UniProtKB/TrEMBL annotation:
Residues 180-306 form the Mvd1 C-terminal domain. It comes from Virgibacillus necropolis. This is diphosphomevalonate decarboxylase. GO terms for molecular function: ATP binding; diphosphomevalonate decarboxylase activity. The gene is mvaD. The keyword ATP-binding applies. Keywords: ATP-binding, Lipid biosynthesis, Lipid metabolism, Lyase, Nucleotide-binding.
Amino acid sequence: MKATAKAHTNIALIKYWGKRDESLILPMNNSLSLTLDAFYTETTVTFNRELEEDKFYLDNEIILGDQYTKVSKFLDLIRNYADSPLFAEVHSTNAVPTAAGFASSASGFAALAAAATRALDLNLDNQTLSRLTRQGSGSACRSIYGGFVEWEKGVEDDGSDSYAVPITPQDHWDVRVAAVVLSSDMKKVSSRVGMKRTVETSPFYSGWVDSIPSDLMQIKTAIQNRDFEKMGKIAEANCQKMHATTLGANPPFTYWHDTTLTVMQTVQALREKGILAYFTIDAGPNVKVLYQPENEEIVHQTLRKIPGVSNVILSRSGQGVTYQ
Ligand code: 2P0
């Protein structure tokens, strides 16, 4: 009735952007990510006959409101799957360095799904676990696995073929990621709201979807061949395409801050000096920079010095879900 699991967050190189089914969380396009070892969530779930409702604690504080409702609704799915009436107490800790600006929903829902299903003795295989995790938060289904991971969108209406698959062994390639944290935040359009508005109103959205198969095919070849330049170019362009769709939405919006652009230009300037580094950006102003181990020092020092950058956190590739 009790289990503990740990899951790492992931950074998408080919972005998940847009749903075809909002309640089952089915995406419009396949996406591809790298799991990161520096950012993770550890969660203990205890099912208990004496509880009259679920309880959720994050970093030792009780959580109420929308965040609680999302967790409790996800536990409903698991209860339904296990045919169990029991409520649970959930204790999560986020090992995400302060204000890293990483969405913790990927590692959060992956750890929650793993711990809750283990606590109910479901012993799911990873494919089933990934499919279930997807219904908590889309990007979380990729965090079941380590290394490079693809989320296959599937074609079925019931979501039965929409789950993540690892595309390389976890130790395939030592690619590093610097998370560049900006000191000022912007009013945020959540990714859930942002992608919905984009799908519904942006004339650029169909171009985004049409371009994905080619990006995916090329980046998978680059990853197999450990071709850093090719992988980086595709990831950087895919990120800019995703963000371009938001400018065509009605009302238009962008996640970029002025310092976001400065970081992007600094990364491009590094390349002009012969240092291969590439950026990618999620639904927020912070930037993640892909680099090779031999360039760690120069990339770190360069990013840290940019005015408006408050922190730079370095990460390697991380592993999939583990249990204590
Ligand atoms: C990604 N993002 O592929 C993309 C790129 C943000 C930009 O997945 O609604 O928090 O819970 O399925 O997974 C963020 O979306 O959204 C995201 P839901 P999620 O990483």
